[in-house]
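Case study.
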Amino acid sequence: MPYTAEQPKRRESNDDLRARIPGWGADLDPKNRPAVPRERFDPAATGAHWDFPDRQPEKWPRERSVEHKMLTPVFGTTVPPRGVSGVLRKYAYREYSEGQAAHWLILLAADRVDAVESHLLSFASLRPDNPITETGVLSELTRHGYSSRVGRNRADVKHQWMDPILVAGPWVLAAGLLYTTVRALARRR
Amino acid sequence: MRAMVYRGPYKVRVDEKDIPPIEHPNDAIIRVTLAAICGSDLHLYHGMMPDTRVGMTFGHEFIGVVEEVGSSVQNLKRGDRVMVPFNIYCGSCYFCARGLYSNCHNVNPNATAVGGIYGYSHTCGGYDGGQSEYVRVPFADVGPALIPEWMDDEDALLCTDALATGYFGAQLGDIHEGDTVAVFGAGPVGLFAAKSAWLMGAGRVLVIDHLDYRLEKARTFAHAETFNFAEYDDIVREMKKTTDYLGADAVIDAVGAEADGNLTQHLTSAKFKLQGGSPVALNWAIDSVRKGGTVSVMGAYGPLFSAVKFGDAMNKGLTLHMNQCPVKRQWPRLFEHIQNGYLKPSDIVTHRIPLEHIAEGYHIFSAKLDNCIKPVIVPSQSA
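After joint prediction, the assembly is written out as follows.
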């Protein structure tokens, strides 16, 4: 009880715990805990044999946070910015620091634009996007989709019904828009 | 090579990609033999992490065999069997020199608030990940390590993130002998955090989740008392009751950005991306810990703001500890625990999925089908 000074009574003694739990107390002494102390100055421990790393070649103007003084010596090179999403991403990096919500909100918006651009581009390729195979939704039939949810008292079932709408909704809307446009054009003729 | 490729929220597939080249003298190219899907990959999969680009390959948990090394690599050679921590780090910056490997300042031009992580969006540096046949590993003399002869592949794989992170989370809880430790989340990290809490000398370990099959695992694997929050009107009140109204001494948030339990929080974050994450578990942790206690945050959150109950944390005089795990610092001690039989990481693996079926793997893990706890990805060449 927190209303008096005593330490709460232990349910199990150390001996009982040691008998029940393999390794109980092996790291009781903080000296055995590798994350303690949090900071430990030991540059020789890392394996680095440089004071500052060689610089990786910059093959295109690499976008970077304005909170960096310079381009870091090493960086990822996958998926350079492209299209409208690329313009948005470069703008977010150039104009806003990580401390500003606009930086992240523009990047999130660029992600959505990127998805639309990529889906449209895929239709001009030999491998168009396939929402059935790419969502893995068929595993609902082979991996107990129904029995994994029903009668399980899962909290996430309250919102999982939204997922298909969020995934398929834009496709249905786009198809509807396309149909309406084509029909309107046909009527004009 | 065959590689998992992100195609937009909730959509992934396997595509042909070029084998990554050496881009820096201390790079290595690793042929991946096993990879895993992490709970935090689901934040990318659901489109929550800013600057996640279509075409990126995810995967920050992987092991493999060295295929090629750059001109300055001294510690690895072709054919070595290696485990690769999820952190990309230089080993020489201000932060690395102080052991903060997950906070390296030399590997992520896109953000200063986070270090480099394989396959984890451009916000974490724009590196492709290991859910593929090959992956570029920067600073090969710093991050990767030879897998000990006695260690099996799945144990090594889980050391690259989930086990190390759970163990680190328990350490950040600053656990003292006999403490009551509550762990929110019975996913891989939560299970390992609960198991590790005993190593630190906990007197009671409580695990909270809403998935009964995971709570069952928490009882059998982590010897924990369990609570299904969906069965209670108010889990915080239950935590107070079970601790005789004191609160737990340490609470670990092993859930992160997509926490369930409050529909508004979940919708505004996971579905509509208006928050960096749904801080339901974190808020429960703040309210369930005793005054003067410690909250350890291992759950991953995005960089945007989240509606955290900071007033309660301040008024209760809490210590909040958090960080991405500096994985390699944990390994020597973790290896001892595995060798001594105190930890058997691969016990939590439930699914082994060929890379070609990656879309099903993500869906099964995301939708929590088939009692999934930890899916391992097997590239076709290793199958």
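Observations recorded in class. The radius of gyration of chain A is 28 Å. Chain A touches chain B through 102 residues (CB under 8 Å). We will return to this complex in the next lecture.
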